[in-house]
């Protein structure tokens, strides 16, 4: 599996670097074709590659109160037709990549660069591991144009799709008040100050995690706390190299936001969502599993955000090189440092 992922990484790096030299028609075919291959890789992966595979097989045969109705529906459909749990993974991979390519095409012109960033991080984390989250995050990306256009009804309706695939997606519903207005004046100060404030709260060990009297959410929170007490989860700290790099990039985008806005009107909305994702990580850090899960669900916008570096550096090949380097570092971090997959 490692060799397959490395081949895909190299191909995506090559396509992203030469994206400007490919006609729009050919780019579209490459974009869709590569996404289809990724869906096949995720759907037909071996059962010993990721940590959650066995849990999903168990859910296929036995549901519980925390199982989303969409999973039950898909599992029952498979069980009463071909009766092979493998096709649950195939369907989720197909849904995930379909939502991703449709959303990316709507949100940016840098299709192949965005697909590269997605592959290096969220494909491995979501599409090949947390398959329900992968579809939910895809719905979130799909909803962003409605949010920018202030079509709140359509935004919330699209997010119902996300919630139906993973109940934790309810966090997305709180973003309905966000706008794509430029960051300037007091609002620039406000948004720029949120992360330092949350880091101070982290240092003071002030957290947002409480027992929530809602069956599913309460059960999940207690599970995450149990994992933390057992030492089975990662340490969540905004001072880790990955998180510090994420914060540094965020402030770089704030600095260059006016330049980027000439090429992509979503920049201010993406920045605000990224800030909230980083803040969530800091405020939930005392329960690391929860901090990582929530922040990663929100920071899916990095798929669109990070390639925008290309618009800020000249000559253009320098920006492309930075995007490729970022993708490589993310791939190494998730596969060889955090070891999301068993490769």
Write the layout of secondary structure elements.
Elements lengths: L1 H16 L6 H20 L9 H9 L7 H11 L6 H22 L3 H17 L3 H18 L3 H14 L19 H19 L11 H15 L11 H15 L1 H5 L5 H17 L4 H11 L3 H4 L10 H22 L6
Q: What is the CA-based Rg, rounded?
A: 20 Å
Q: Into which percent range does the helicity of residues fall?
A: 55-70%
Taking pLDDT < 50 over at least 5 consecutive residues as the criterion, the unreliable ranges are: none
Order of helices and strands: HHHHHHHHHHHHHHHH
What's the β-strand tally?
0
Query: Structural class of the secondary elements?
Result: mainly alpha
Specify the number of helices. 16
Coarse morphology = globular
Strand content: under 5%
pLDDT averaged over residues: 89
Please report the distance between the alpha carbons of the first and last residues: 7 Å
- Main β sheet profile: none
Describe this structure in words.
- The structure is a single chain.
- The protein is mainly α and 343 residues long.
- It is built from 16 helices and no strands.
- Helix 1 packs antiparallel against helix 6 (111-127), helix 1 (2-17) runs antiparallel to helix 16 (316-337) and helix 2 packs antiparallel against helix 5.
- The chain starts with a helix and ends in a 6-residue tail after the last helix.
